Amino acid sequence: MLKAGIMGSTGYTGHELIGLLKRHPAVEIVFAASASSAGSDLIQAYPGGPAQALVAPDEVDLSSADVAFLCVPHGSAAPWAKRAIEAGARVIDLSADFRLSDPQVFKSWYGVEHAAPELLDNAVYGLTEWAREDLPEAQLVANPGCYPTSVLLPLLPLVQAGALSGTVVVDSKSGVTGAGRRPRPHTQFAELSENLVPYALGRAHRHVPEMEQALAWASPTPPGLIFSPHLLPVARGILSTIYAPLAEGWDEALLRQVLTGAYADEVFVELLPPGDAATLAHVVRSNRCVMGVVVSEGTAIITSAIDNLLKGAAGQAVQNMNAVFGLDETLGVV
User: By the 8 A CB rule, do 2 and 28 touch?
Assistant: First the structure.
């Protein structure tokens, strides 16, 4: 049995992750840490379960874990990653601390110095379907952001194939759990109910450099990117509608051929039949990414849906753990 530890267990992602790991047939949870709720049980914070005793972060024995999941705020994960690796554990970081390969880019977007830049070169960006060759035996996996997962899965094969030209416009809408559990005025029921709230417009969202970095890995001449996120009055799920100008000679049939070729054997990625668009109902409470594509006036209109807490966070983290340790990727997530 793999022994797993979780840092940051009472946020939405930590709670979701513990639920998955408790159902995983090859995992035993050896500690679940929470700075705010140490000494209590997770079921007190989430009455629907699962039950899990919570300990203080300074009480955990990192050497007792084969894998440590870091569900802590951006900027605070890197010191824990360093300690866990030194203790002999593999690390799957669900924060942004190791997603960007340049520590100066990280500082410019997150406002703090990177606490362990020496680990960046060995961090694997864990978009599982595109990182599979690098995941086995990886010491440190940077779990992708939720918005980038919904955007990169459809775009990467098309960018790699040279199908796109010009600037891609991404209009993404997320359930409110994507904003985290800490109360904020714009996430309160009275503000969000029966409302739709755009935010971080105009190259302001921290996921922009993450997406641009991955697109640059796929092509030396990646398309430009405009990203416009919104909060939906639902608990969970992301729907990204992507408007991508096509390169000369490309049409819907060729796009579908590329996407089918990229994902035909993938359990968690599905291209819908012609004419169908992805919706939240396709994916909520699953680890799937579902996408649809149509072409209008030389522009691909791609719809891509994921559950932000699963394929966008905890589910992909477990999928990555399975790949790191040579297990069936579907264990614990289907």
Answer: yes
